[in-house]
């Protein structure tokens, strides 16, 4: 009996002094995979690619600091047929802080339909490819909060946004974008109401502030957007020709500087919308809209 007890005690002691090795929080690894089936006439491939990216940006939320995130990106795509048509594509993003040379626990994650993603400053942009006459769409998230900020489509200047730098007792940023119908995210952005042809979103780096829908006159359908190329600009007395970036200054709270200019949106040579900026919002009551078109407040994304 004594021998057995001693043996059991010995086992307990060995377990106590040799714990399992702790996970190394300075390293991480990801695996990718592919599954293929069918012949040349019925080809099908599912590709799951997992990659890392590091993002670094200055935060908007106080106390302001430089933040570094490790982004785990999973792209899940299915390709079919001789032309490798995309049947489904989505991206999954997990963000983890990098502090003191170590990888922290996830702070947010999101999953979104899309073909590829990239980080730039405090933003993460997911691109959904178009097909045939349908153009690409861009879905943008805040890397500070993980929130969806806005969707936009190509405009006359490509993928460019309108930006504002507000100067006061500190600096603040604003962005304005437009999404036009007949692009890859119509269902997500405009919904099933076929009279909605365009959205305009005004945002800060951490959250959307305002979203508007432009509605068509009864004699037009969404297909009219195929003939339009949106041209978006800020205008003011000093910049009547328009600019894609402006600096507005005030004393004290920089948000109070967001006034006194106008967002101009040209759809073609004859169709132009003007939205004054007052009180850090686009002024719907004093907007100038072509006959038959209407603007309405929309839910934030």
Summarize the helices and strands and which ones pair or pack.
Blueprint lengths: L1 H16 L15 E5 L6 E15 L7 E15 L4 E15 L2 E2 L4 E6 L2 E5 L2 E6 L8 E6 L5 E6 L8 E6 L3 E10 L5 H5 L5 E8 L4 E8 L15 E5 L9 E5 L11 E6 L5 E7 L2 E2 L11 E4 L4
Parallel strand pairs: 11-16
Antiparallel strand pairs: 1-2, 2-3, 3-4, 4-5, 4-6, 7-8, 8-9, 9-10, 11-12, 12-13, 13-14, 14-20, 15-17, 17-18, 18-19
Structural commentary:
By secondary structure, the chain is mainly beta. The chain has one domain (33-297). It has helices at 2-17, 186-190, and strands at residues 33-37, 44-58, 66-80, 85-99, 102-103, 108-113, 116-120, 123-128, 137-142, 148-153, 162-167, 171-180, 196-203, 208-215, 231-235, 245-249, 261-266, 272-278, 281-282, 294-297. The strands form four sheets. Strands 1, 2, 3, 4, 5 and 6 form a six-stranded antiparallel beta sheet that branches. A six-stranded mixed beta sheet has the order 16-11-12-13-14-20. Strands 7-8-9-10 form a four-stranded antiparallel beta sheet, with no helix packed on it. The longest helix is centred in the N-terminal third of the chain and has 16 residues, at 2-17. The chain is flat. The protein starts with a helix and ends with a strand.
